[in-house]
Amino acid sequence: QLQAFGGGLVQSGDSLRLSCAAAGRTFSAYTMGWFRQAPGKERELVASKGQRTYYVDSVKGRFTISRDSAKNTVYLQMNSLKPDDTAVYYCAVSPYYSGIHTEPRKYDYWGQGTLVTVSS
Q: Is 26 left (phi over 0), alpha (psi -120 to 50) or beta?
């Protein structure tokens, strides 16, 4: 139901925009978010947008999450990319609309991952 795309290989300082389109149902009253998982590391919530907007500290000021309710799509604009941003990025949807929920177990729907590789 969720399809993510937009990853790729870029150089440090470049920008990428990830998109995740939801099909089959509307998620207007859900939180939509982006997680990432680097090799050997746990999956972490990068940004989410529900009633509140959340960013992990390491991306504040560089990444922007947005939603287009008409298209049932969530975006992650990533600027000033760094090698540490290299990971597989996953979009996810949580039924918890209020509050901030960083745990992957709070998200019921997941897209396939899209790989972002940032070279130095």
A: beta
pLDDT at residue 27, rounded to an integer: 84
39/26 Cα distance (integer angstroms): 32
Nearest C-alpha neighbor of 8 from the set 117, 87, 119: 117
Beta-ladder partners of 107: none
How far apart are alpha carbons 11 and 14 in whole angstroms? 6
Helix (H) or strand (E) holding 28: none
Q: How confident is the model at residue 111 (pLDDT cuts 50, 70, 90)?
A: very high
- Range of lowest pLDDT (2-11, 21-30, 37-46): 21-30
Residue among 117, 93, 92, 103 nearest 39 (CA) = 117
Judge contact between 58 and 45, C-beta under 8 A.
Answer: no
